[in-house]
Structure formats: structure tokens, C-alpha cells
Automatic annotation (TrEMBL):
GO biological process: L-methionine salvage from methylthioadenosine; L-methionine salvage from S-adenosylmethionine; nucleoside catabolic process
EC number: 3.2.2.9
Protein known as: adenosylhomocysteine nucleosidase
The keyword Amino-acid biosynthesis belongs to this UniProt entry's keyword annotation: yes
Length: 266
């Protein structure tokens, strides 16, 4: 573990694990709100819970694979902090970020699934008289800039396509997932996001932050998997309350199938 990482973990009040104490999971699965994570934790066999920096990490077997599951909290800062702790202490080979999202594409309905071909922050850039312009940013340790779009892992995408295609009754799309520190319930803003990112399908509050930390910390492969809970428009709050549980159940089932399909050696 680097000196920088140790200082970061100490500043968070977290115990710094030695190399012998650090875990290695095949896949880490993260979500933002309780319902997104509890459904997955309930599927774990032989679960062991460890608290690091106030965050609970549940280790166990999911579909025969060693996984760690954690709730990152809502928003980009919470997501980045928890992902940093995850990568330092568990060193997962791959990360899946899952849960619910608002639909940017109006043809999507509650319960539909989105596989993130990329994740991008829609609220990072410059806002002037012409509107919002997205930009890259630099990490504290990297010489080159982060991309605007963080690509989804090709292996996880391939597995997700296969397992989703084998399940009848699911409507699955592949496209961009946008992230910002707001719950979107505005038709005008939703249309503007579609204009700026024509191939984006869903909007949420954490995915691109997780993707950026994974990118900076050794290009850890990541896939964002979301189930639609609302239409990100004027009625989003009511629709979210009505469909969040159903959407979370759908995403947790897909994630379980993806984990089962990941080769054990990968």
C-alpha cells in the first residue's frame, strides 16, 4: 500500500490493512441506497461483515464466486470515498455498480435494464450563456486527464449480454449512464442531457464517480448496471417511490447472473 493511500485511509478514520490482511475478491458489487444492497447481501453464502471507516463490507459467496458487497451512500463524494476503501482493502478483479436510475430515453419503462457502455459526469465542466459544456479533469496523481466517458468493461458487458439474453421477459438496452449530484425530476433538463449525450440511456448519482476511482487506481474493470425506476421527469419522485423496489430486485437478479457468468480465473 502506498504512503498516499495510508494517509487517505487514516484521514477517514479507517484501519490501514497490511498486505497479509488485505482481501482479494473476484467481483465487488456496490450500490447506493439500502434496497439496492440488501437484496444482494441476502443472497450471500457464508457472509462476513467488516467495518472500515464506518462503511460495512460484506464478504461471501455469490453464485459460487467470492464477492464483496457494500453500500456507498448517495452522491459522487460518498461513492468515491467508499470505492477508494474497497480497492485498497479488497483489491477486486472487477467492480459492478448497480441499482436504480432515471430513464433519459423515454422508450424505457420501470424495470427495464441498462448496461453501461460508458459512465460520464453530466455536471462536470463549464456553464456559460450557451449552456453546459463537459470537460475532463486531472487526478492528483496522473499526468494525463481522465476521460469524459469511462468505458464499461468488455468482459462484464459480454457476460451481461449473454445472461440477459437468456432470460425471457427482460428488456435490456446498452448505452451511456450519466452521473450528477442531483435527483433528476425535470423534463427540460432530461431533454438537455439527451442532447448533450445522444447515446445515454439513464441518469443517476454515483456511477461515474466509482468509474473514475477505478480508472485512477490501476484501470480496475468496471460495469454500471442499472434498472429503471422512473422517467427523470416531472413525475419522477412519485414513480421512483412506486417502482424502486421492483427495479432493485431486477438489477440484483441480473448482477447475480453476471457474477455467475464471470470465469473464475478472471
Amino acid at each position: 500500500m502506498t504512503r498516499r493511500a495510508r494517509l487517505l485511509l487514516l484521514s477517514l478514520g479507517a484501519p490501514v490493512a497490511s498486505g497479509a490482511q488485505e482481501r482479494r475478491a473476484t467481483v465487488a458489487v456496490l450500490g447506493a441506497i439500502p434496497v439496492e444492497v440488501e437484496l444482494l447481501r441476502a443472497r450471500l453464502q457464508h457472509p462476513v461483515v467488516r467495518t472500515i471507516g464506518g462503511i460495512e463490507f460484506a464478504e461471501g459467496l455469490l453464485a459460487g464466486r467470492r464477492v464483496v458487497v457494500a453500500r456507498v451512500g448517495v452522491g459522487k463524494v460518498n461513492a468515491a470515498m467508499t470505492t477508494t476503501l474497497l480497492l485498497e482493502h479488497y483489491r477486486p478483479r472487477r467492480v459492478i455498480f448497480t441499482g436504480v436510475a432515471g430513464a433519459l430515453d423515454t422508450t424505457l419503462a420501470p424495470g427495464d435494464l441498462v448496461l453501461g457502455s460508458y459512465a460520464a459526469q453530466h455536471d462536470l465542466g463549464a456553464w456559460d450563456a450557451r449552456g453546459m459544456t463537459n470537460a475532463t479533469n486531472d487526478s492528483a496523481t496522473a499526468i494525463t486527464s481522465n476521460p469524459v466517458r469511462f468505458p464499461g468493461d468488455t468482459l462484464l458487458l459480454r457476460v451481461a449480454r449473454t445472461v440477459a439474453g437468456a432470460r425471457t421477459g427482460w428488456h435490456v438496452r446498452e448505452g451511456g449512464v450519466l452521473t450528477g449530484d442531483v435527483f433528476l425530476a425535470n423534463d427540460s433538463v432530461r431533454r438537455d442531457l439527451r442532447r448533450r449525450f445522444p447515446d445515454a440511456l439513464a441518469v443517476e448519482m454515483e456511477g461515474a464517480a466509482v468509474a473514475q476511482v477505478c480508472w485512477q487506481q490501476g484501470r480496475v474493470p468496471l460495469l454500471v448496471v442499472r434498472s429503471i425506476s422512473d422517467g427523470a421527469g416531472a413525475k419522477a419522485r412519485e414513480t421512483f417511490a412506486q417502482f424502486v423496489r421492483r427495479a432493485a430486485e431486477r438489477s440484483s437478479e441480473l448482477v447475480t447472473r453476471i457474477v455467475a457468468g464471470v470465469p473464475a480465473s478472471r
